[in-house]
């Protein structure tokens, strides 16, 4: 009897222990990692509570799960159309999932059944039925109501946009009228030294143009701000908002990022440019000092200074470009390289004569055959040098014609410089007359020298002299030579010399027999001058 009682008590104790273990196992609060909200967190859709979440899931609390499910359901309601057949359930590793159009709305795990007395399948089916009813009803209600609201919001935005544009136009119209009324006070002519760069009227037009451009830019900016706002109001066009904003912002962002990334290279380019700029300025200063003879360099002529400066400047700029080229934006791109090769090819094909003229200009510069202001003769062109560059020489003729001659042609021909001789002993001008054999040559010499001495521009020392260049059949050729110091007045001096020769020979009764003289002789007279053997001793023509 005692043995049976002990066995019965043992069985009761064992049963009590098993029941306690079972209860502890089924108690959610005793399960490791699970938090239970006894009140439950509601899943709300458009102010209606559909159900509550009481159990946490991993790191997410019941409240966080409920809020996430509410947001997903609201996204479904916001869609333009609701598709009932797209609301489905799915089982993965003993977990149930409710999906809409392949997107997970919520999950139902074993922990969610605690305290409900239902299985996962039963809970899933009840949630499906509940969501199917509420999503369909609320989608229709939400779309209709929200569409009306969206239309009203869009109308407000459009009305606000119209008001802002009207206000901008009103402001700018006032500004235009104000500037028009006070034009004389605000706008003055802009001068650089004596050059009137901008008149008052031009300044006014520029200012009005800039204001109009600013007004148009502001209106365009308002449209770019208003359009995304209007598109974002309607759910179906919300994606367009992102596209419009991206369309505007993406290039702006890319440009800003490119500018920011390019700043180090830009600083390098600026530093290199400034170094070469002030180096060229220093060389220009030295060239001016040499040109004005303030700085004398042995063996370096002052008229070389400007040309040498131009050559050094071109070489320095070319060297600067070689240094800067790798830092230019896109210099390593195939397109940039292709364009560079193309322009290089064009330059090499079209610059044969260009390079020839440039090389001839260099040779002429350092040969120093002439300088600006000299009276020269190139082939059949005679005039004063008014411009001398690396490529061409410009001459103004005595008829005030301006002739441009390529340097390559000058180098391949001959050049006569009249000015160089005038700076030394003097330039010799000459002209010829033909006088008959009956006129004494000494008399002709005296008359020619006297004519030269009376000519303005002919210098006294060295004295004029006469050369007898030929003894022809009917006359003797006499050449008068005279020194002058004014190379720019050769034409006038020669004209005056010819007039004086005519006057003096007419006074002396000596006939100028140019180009030829013919006379009939009866044999009673000879051609020997009277003062050279005639008995009467009379002078010819006296």
Describe the structure.
The relative contact order is 0.04. The strands form five sheets. The chain has a five-stranded antiparallel β-sheet with strand order 11-10-9-8-12. It is rod-shaped and about 160 Å long. A hairpin with a 2-residue loop joins strand 8 (375-378) and strand 9. Mean pLDDT is 77; it is low at 1-33 and 532-542. It contains 13 helices and 15 strands. The N and C termini lie far apart (201 Å). The protein is of the alpha+beta class. Among the domains are: 1-30; 31-138, no CATH class; 357-419, SH3 type barrels (Roll), CATH 2.30.30; 425-532, Alpha-Beta Plaits, CATH 3.30.70.100.
Tell how many strands the DSSP assignment holds: 15
Strand ordering within the main sheet: 11-10-9-8-12
Distance between the termini: 201 Å
Shape by Cα distribution: rod-shaped
Helix content: 40-55%
Order of helices and strands: HEEHEEEHHEEHHHHHEEEEHEHEHEEH
Counting helices, strands and paired strands, the structural category is alpha+beta
Query: How confident overall, as mean pLDDT?
Result: 77
C-alpha Rg (nearest Å): 55 Å
Beta fraction = 15-25%
Total helical segments: 13
- Which consecutive residue ranges, at least 5 long each, have pLDDT under 50? 1-33, 532-542
Largest sheet: 5 strands, antiparallel
